[in-house]
Amino acid sequence: MAVEVRDHPAALQYEAFVDGEPAGLIRYTRDGDVVTMVHTEVEPKFESQGVGSELVKQALEHVRAHGEHVVPLCPFVAAYIRRHPDYDELVVG
């Protein structure tokens, strides 16, 4: 299953799509180059299929590509980073 993740800055969220269908999102706030990820949601029909993990991975890669940092307030994002320490360098706060 291919998950496409897009940043939607006007809505302050990363949005995940599977075959063009909304599958999940990460709500965030932004202060300069710091993205605070506050909440992750996955649509029920896509739960337990890796959509949430792929959403977090692509959002963190977006942060990295733009030279930004992250504050993982969302427990799901924080747990993902604990399991993937290669993202530790992005974490502030």
Number of helix segments? 2
Radius of gyration: 12 Å
Protein structure class: alpha+beta
Largest sheet: 5 strands, mixed
Please identify which CATH superfamily we are dealing with: Gcn5-related N-acetyltransferase (GNAT)
How far apart lie the N and C ends?
34 Å
Strand fraction equals 35-45%
Q: Which stretches of 5+ consecutive residues score pLDDT under 50?
A: none
CATH level-two architecture:
3-Layer(aba) Sandwich
- What oligomerization state is this entry in? single chain
The CATH class assignment is: Alpha Beta
What is the element layout, followed by pairings?
Blueprint: E1 3-8, E2 13-18, E3 21-31, E4 34-42, H1 51-65, E5 69-72, H2 75-83
Parallel strand pairs: 4-5
Antiparallel strand pairs: 1-2, 2-3, 3-4
Structural account:
- The chain is α+β, with helices and mostly antiparallel strands and about 90 residues long.
- It has a single domain (about 5-90), classed as 3-Layer(aba) Sandwich (Aminopeptidase).
- The protein has helices spanning about 50-65, 75-85; strands at about 5-10, 15-20, 20-30, 35-40, 70.
- Strands 1-2-3-4-5 form a 5-stranded mixed beta sheet.
- Strand 1 (about 5-10) and strand 2 form a beta hairpin.
- The mean pLDDT is about 95.
